[in-house]
Amino acid sequence: MSIAYLNGEYLPLAEARISPLDRGFLFGDGIYEVIPYYSGKSVGLVPHIERMIDGLAAIEIKCKKSADEWKVLLDDLIARNQGATNNLGVYVHVSRGTDVKRFHAYPENVEPTIFCFTFGIKDPEPVDREKVHAYTVTTSEDLRWKRCHIKSTALLGNVMHFQQGHASGNSECLLYNAKNELTEGSSVNAYIVKDGVVITPIQDNQILPGITRRIIIDSLKAEGSIKVEERIVSMDEVYNADEVWISSSSKEIAPIVQIDGKPVGDGKVGPVWEAAFRIYTDAKFTHS
């Protein structure tokens, strides 16, 4: 049975309990992270922790743990779940805490609820465009809130968009704003490739500052053989791209071969994906 962490205590996941008055339960008032570990080696641990601390500050949750204390906690949780010999994801959830009443305003003198648990994740995909699992997606206007740069636990908008993709037999739902510009997916960042150039939407309040996205951009720029642009991407460009990718901590870089039932490029995983995924794979453990 998985060992979880809840407010200073390690315990079996099935025994973890929170109050129904916890603001994470009542309002989705919290911040979360998902961090992958492969045989005990984390991907992007420090950037994940930094993003979480930034998110907590953005919504004014006062959590006393330092970045170093978070790292010790998460590494310990991985060790308690035999992470040295398994591929595990860690879910980290910090809510504002439990008040004595349901009231919208931030309560005072309430300690945050800190909850973490691990779960199994699959092996990384092969760096081989003939063998990698390819995805299909649908599209929708982005109807979520305007603070998508905050990794909030209030995910109903994302869940509803993901369900659109799932219900239509697809793996994801790519989103676009009122100007017909690509934002991201319901649970992923998004990219197109045109004439060998990797292009991804600029980082603003419309998209999550994805840690995998950051590692991809940093590693491609450092290696130098593949040009990367961060700019506005129209949906016309998406539909006419040579390749389309999505990324997340669990999917890493996933190629898209079909959008709204129509093939991307020639309908096959492209060569730029394979080259980029090789560069990312070589670099991903250096960001921890």
Automatic annotation (TrEMBL):
- This protein is called Aminodeoxychorismate lyase
The cofactors it requires, by name, are:
pyridoxal 5'-phosphate
Q: Which organism is it from?
A: Neptunomonas qingdaonensis
Any idea of its EC number? 4.1.3.38
The UniProt entry's GO CC annotations, sorted and at most eight, read:
cytosol
List GO BP terms, alphabetically.
Answer: amino acid biosynthetic process; folic acid biosynthetic process
PANTHER family named among the record's database cross-references? AMINO-ACID AMINOTRANSFERASE, D-ALANINE AMINOTRANSFERASE
Q: Which SUPFAM superfamilies match?
A: D-aminoacid aminotransferase-like PLP-dependent enzymes
